[in-house]
Structures are given as C-alpha cells and as structure tokens.
C-alpha cells in the first residue's frame, strides 16, 4: 500500500503513523513525502514543503515498479502538490484511493485554496475521511451537529467519493463517540465507546490508512470503515496510560500495552 503525506518528527502522526499502522496490519508500506514537519506532542513549529517535482518523482518511482493495491493521501502543504497527485489519480493510477484531507497550508498559505485543490482529488477517491473542521472547509459552512455531519457527507459524496466518513473527534453522545458515514445514498451513525485519553495523536491518519489497507485486502468500504473504527478505538484505549511528551501523545497501533516483553 502507498501512503502520501507529511513526515512528522515526533513520530505520532503523518507518514510515521501510516507506516506503523501498515506494519501492524502486516502490509508493506511505500511512501511519498509531501512535507517535512517540525513537530512534537505540543504542536507544530514549522512545515517544509517538498518541491512538487520531488513529490511527483517519488510517486512515479513507486508506481512504475511496485504493485500498489491501495493509496491513502494525507497532508498536502500547498495546492500545487495536491493538483499533481490529483493528475495521477485522474489517470487511474491510484487504486482504492482514500483521501484524508489534512488542510494545513504551509507558510501562511490559504487553507481555502488548499481545500479547493484537494476538491480536485476527491472525485477520484473511493472513500474520504475528513473531520468536522476539514468537512466545514470543504463544504463551505460550519459542521457542528450529527445532522450537519450527515448533510455535509451527502454534499461531499455528490461531487466525488462514493463513501464519506466525517469523524466526530471530540463530539460525544452519551458515552459514545460518533462518526457519520455516507454510503449507498444514505447516512448512518457509527458509534463506539468513548475513550478518555490525552493520547490521540495520529488517530485520523491511522483510521484512513487502515481503511485503505482493508480495501487492499478485499473488504468492501463499509466493512473496511467498521473494522478500522474498532482498530483505532483499541489503539487509543491501549495508549491511554502512556506519557510520551508533555502534550497529545501517540496511539498504540501495535497493541504494545497488552504485551509482556522479556
């Protein structure tokens, strides 16, 4: 499987989280680095975009040799990089494409401009996995409630991916964390037990990568999303007691917390 996104110096999210997820799922991961991010558990201090020619070169090198079964995209630091990858998707070179629209423009760039570029990629995606903030930027209005999530998912699906999952993040109903999935022309709520933890870094990247990996394994999109939501929930729960850094720590894709090391 191929992941396209940014390198995170803290190891919690981005390419590092993607490759850790794939290793946990016993899949080989290839990668295209779109940016190098100076980051720790307390936040991002700088983003260094890779030249578009370098991103295109990495992508071409992988696709001309490796039998890529699925692709996940994450952070694009600028519109030009997103457009270059969209061109590859338009040619049919990116199978089982899952788009996680991480809308963090580098160098003070316009997030709206980046969203417009990512929108060019969405019609070629099988699944898109924005959070509520990302969905708000993509649809042009604020997504707050589950009803908003359903409406936004339908709107995004009408212009692109057949399946859209808007992750609720900190949106909680009772004891459940709630995501919204648009599939086969209908919205459905996805519930999972809420896990109280400060360690959630990389959960969105892990979810999208797991969905793409399960698609590569032959799951249909609904099965892939359902399995991946459970996988992320366990990874957050397993890392709840970790103390890695002073801020938002990583999650436990490998189930290390349940292992006895000798």
TrEMBL record:
EC number in record: 2.7.1.35
Alphabetical keyword list: ATP-binding, Kinase, Magnesium, Metal-binding, Nucleotide-binding, Transferase
Top-rank EC class of the record's enzyme: transferase
Domain Pyridoxamine kinase/Phosphomethylpyrimidine kinase: 8-252
Reaction(s) catalysed by this chain's protein: pyridoxal + ATP = pyridoxal 5'-phosphate + ADP + H(+)
Transmembrane segments: none
InterPro entries, per database record: HMP/HMP-P_kinase_dom (IPR004399), PM/HMP-P_kinase-1 (IPR013749), Ribokinase-like (IPR029056)
Gene3D superfamilies, per the entry: 3.40.1190.20
SUPFAM superfamilies: Ribokinase-like (SSF53613)
Kinase is among the record's keywords: yes
Family recorded in the similarity comment: Belongs to the ThiD family.
Task performed by this protein: Catalyzes the phosphorylation of hydroxymethylpyrimidine phosphate (HMP-P) to HMP-PP, and of HMP to HMP-P.
Designated name of the protein: pyridoxal kinase
């Amino acid at each position: 499987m191929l992941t396209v996104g940014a390198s995170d110096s803290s190891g919690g999210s981005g390419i590092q989280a993607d490759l850790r997820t794939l290793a946990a799922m016993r899949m080989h991961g290839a990668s295209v680095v779109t940016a190098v991010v100076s980051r720790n558990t307390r936040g991002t201090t700088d983003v260094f975009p890779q030249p578009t020619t370098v991103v295109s070169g990495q992508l071409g090198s992988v696709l001309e040799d490796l039998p890529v079964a699925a692709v996940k995209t994450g952070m694009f630091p600028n519109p030009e990089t997103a457009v270059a990858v969209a061109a590859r998707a338009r040619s049919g070179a990116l199978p089982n494409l899952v788009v996680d629209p991480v809308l963090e423009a580098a160098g003070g760039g316009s997030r709206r401009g980046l969203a417009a570029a990512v929108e060019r990629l969405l019609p070629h995606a099988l699944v898109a996995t924005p959070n509520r903030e990302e969905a708000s930027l993509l649809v042009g209005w604020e997504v707050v409630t589950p009803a908003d999530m359903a409406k936004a998912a339908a709107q995004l699906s009408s212009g692109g991916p057949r399946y859209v999952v808007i992750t609720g993040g900190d949106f909680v109903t009772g004891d459940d964390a709630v995501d919204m999935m648009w599939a086969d022309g209908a919205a459905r709520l996805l519930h999972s037990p809420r896990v109280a933890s400060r360690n959630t870094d990389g959960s969105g990247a892990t979810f999208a990568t797991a969905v793409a990996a399960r698609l590569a394994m032959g799951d249909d999109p609904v099965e892939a999303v359902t399995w991946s939501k459970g996988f992320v929930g366990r990874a957050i729960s397993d890392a709840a007691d970790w103390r890695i850094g002073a801020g938002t720590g990583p999650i436990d894709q490998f189930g290390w917390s349940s292992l006895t090391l000798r």
